[in-house]
Amino acid sequence: MTNPTLAAGAVERHLRARRDTGRGLLMPYVTGGITPGWTDYLRAFAAAGADAIEVGLPFSDPTLDGVTIQQAGHTALARGASTRRILADLSGMPDLDVPLVASTYYNLVLHDGPEAFCAALRRAGVDGLIVPDLPVHEADELTEVAAAAGIELALLASPATPEPRLAEISSRSRGFVYAVSLMGTTGERAALAASAAELTARIRRGTDRPVLLGFGISTPDQAREAGRHADGVVVGAAVVRRVLDGAGPDDLRAFVATLRRALDQEV
Amino acid sequence: MQDVLPWREPVPLDGTMGEPRARGRFGEYGGRYAPESLVEACREVDGAFREAWADPGFRGALARLLAEHVGRPTPLTPARRLSEALGVQLYLKREDLTHTGSHKINNVLGQALLATRMGRRRLIAETGAGQHGVATATAAALLGLEATVFMGERDIERQALNVFRMRMLGAEVVPVTTGSRTLKDATSEAMRHWVGATGDSHYCIGSVVGPDPYPWMVREFQRIIGDEARGQCAAELRTGVPDYVVACVGGGSNAAGTFAGFADTPARLVGVEAEGGAGAARGRLGVLHGCRSLFLQDDDGQITQAHSIAAGLDYPGVGPEHAHLRDLGRARYVTVTDDEAVGAAVRLARTEGIVPALESAHALAWVIREAGGGDLPAGSTVLMTLSGRGDKDVSTLKELL
Ligand SMILES: Cc1ncc(COP(=O)(O)O)c(C=O)c1O
């Protein structure tokens, strides 16, 4: 077997390097195009200590998103956001020194064709990709194309994923393994689901690839707790809800910094 | 009103409407593009369906329910006065005469029985016209299950009668306020809900759409329409097999069920879509609600809203098997306008004493438009599935007429 570190792309190398210093990883999410100056949020995330940033490319029919991210997507689309425009906005940004990971539904990948889609991500400086409605057994069409374009396709694992399948997801995932903390959609929750720890432990038994926990992680306390199980966290709805409520980049920098501190205290 | 593909010579394709290929594929369409959290649930449905479908006990129980509760077999009715006027021989397969008033009940009873076999206590469903919701509420009541039905706000307004029926049957009707507030959004919401409810609930999808095994399973539960009609045509028609087999297409379940009975015959298969919801005729390759098929999309790859006077045809896509049949040239997909459908509904009422569902009126509108013309030569025999009755649409029609 090849050494995964040597085979790893930019996202995985970056996350591994940070993890190996003992740092809990933090990947905040924002919906691309949600406000006119939305790329300022990315700068704020980087300044607050994000280790990677997830940028959602809005889709009309997000079947795995709860109300907050659905609303963010509709807001962005109503403002005229599209994959093309969001990637153009990203291309115009100075380098943040933090890998960008796009996330979207498979229809948008197929629309341009996997090859053109990945090439466009690459040109915009995106390194990774998450497609929540592309489970591992359907991913063949995209995996090689993405790899050839230098895009790391991260696969999702869920609490309902049985053993042999989990092993396949862990080994075929690139960048990191996205552990979905609970059986449900994205959205803020009052507590970290019990299934989160269990799933992370199961993934870790099979791989040394970074494991990021996402879905429902809303507060610094939850981030700290999640950081005890996984290598890091993805925080989506809690960030996006603030944006929808009118919070500016500075407010978001302050919020992400509280998550950062919570993860750091854990060490 | 143009058709995308030319009319090819019909090829009787044995096995065309058999089991899908590996990974639930019909040609390049189908598949299981579901969130990872739902993949296990889909696999369970797949395993349970395969086992049940091979089990004479299950088949027998379903056949009994269909006979005792639904009123199957449904008749084949010659539309005598209309046939004479049109110059073709038109036969109607009367799914409007089923209990609850549409073909949806065939599939729902199959899935509800499967759900009980799997130990599920609750059915989740989406509905547009409300017919699938009513069928689900009915099956749940009959088998002692709970039912939660997602329905777009807009459809709740225009299908108030069916909303009342569902509630009377004990189902919970959940209004969906996102997007176009119609079937597409109700389906998204039902899927989101299913992600959190796989432990005790079965998602009872109402058409030949969704992740594998749904398109195949729903077609198998609906093939009773085609199988019965095939036997009835053999007995009634001098030719044995009709020249044309016509059905309306929303997601495509009544059409798939009807076509399945004739796939291995020379009959020409015609699916009729709403002008504003023509997934098969105008859609582009995409992935929505768990399957790869043809969907109406804008230039950015966003799914566009369908518009049809018939809530059941207000879906921007079509089931994957229809996309495949289209590519093969085995079936042809055409469109008619709202006005044509309304005109056809009135004409059927006045000539045959039957008020059809507006969805079914689309199929009839094509027959009326093309009869005696190039696409439907004079003297042809036509089997048309009347997928449902028009009671639910009377308030819509009252506004227009
Ligand atoms: C009476 C009737 N016909 C047809 C349809 C369209 O569905 P399908 O294409 O799955 O048969 C519906 C859907 O609600 C319906 O109620």
UniProtKB/TrEMBL annotation, chain A:
Domain of life: Bacteria
EC main group: lyase
Keyword Lyase: yes
GO cellular component: cytosol
InterPro entries: Aldolase_TIM, RibuloseP-bd_barrel, Trp_synthase_suA
GO molecular function, one term: tryptophan synthase activity
Catalytic activity, as annotated: (1S,2R)-1-C-(indol-3-yl)glycerol 3-phosphate + L-serine = D-glyceraldehyde 3-phosphate + L-tryptophan + H2O
Gene3D superfamilies (alphabetical): Aldolase class I
Pfam families: Trp_syntA
Pathway recorded for this protein: Amino-acid biosynthesis; L-tryptophan biosynthesis; L-tryptophan from chorismate: step 5/5
Record keywords: Amino-acid biosynthesis, Aromatic amino acid biosynthesis, Lyase, Tryptophan biosynthesis
Active-site feature positions: E54, D65
Enzyme Commission identifier(s): 4.2.1.20
Keyword Lyase: yes
Assembly behavior: Tetramer of two alpha and two beta chains.
Assigned protein family: Belongs to the TrpA family.
Function per UniProt: The alpha subunit is responsible for the aldol cleavage of indoleglycerol phosphate to indole and glyceraldehyde 3-phosphate.
Protein name, UniProt field: Tryptophan synthase alpha chain
Record organism: Nonomuraea muscovyensis
Gene name in the database record: trpA
UniProtKB/TrEMBL annotation, chain B:
Lineage start: Bacteria, Bacillati, Actinomycetota, Actinomycetes, Streptosporangiales
Designated name of the protein: Tryptophan synthase beta chain
Coiled-coil stretches noted in the UniProt entry, renumbered to this chain: none
Quaternary data: Tetramer of two alpha and two beta chains.
Entry function: The beta subunit is responsible for the synthesis of L-tryptophan from indole and L-serine.
Top-level EC class: lyase
UniProt domain Tryptophan synthase beta chain-like PALP: residue ranges: 71-388
Keywords for the protein's UniProt record, in alphabetical order: Amino-acid biosynthesis, Aromatic amino acid biosynthesis, Lyase, Pyridoxal phosphate, Tryptophan biosynthesis
InterPro entries for this protein: Trp_synth_b_CS, Trp_synth_beta, Trp_synth_beta/beta-like, TrpB-like_PALP, TrpB-like_PALP_sf
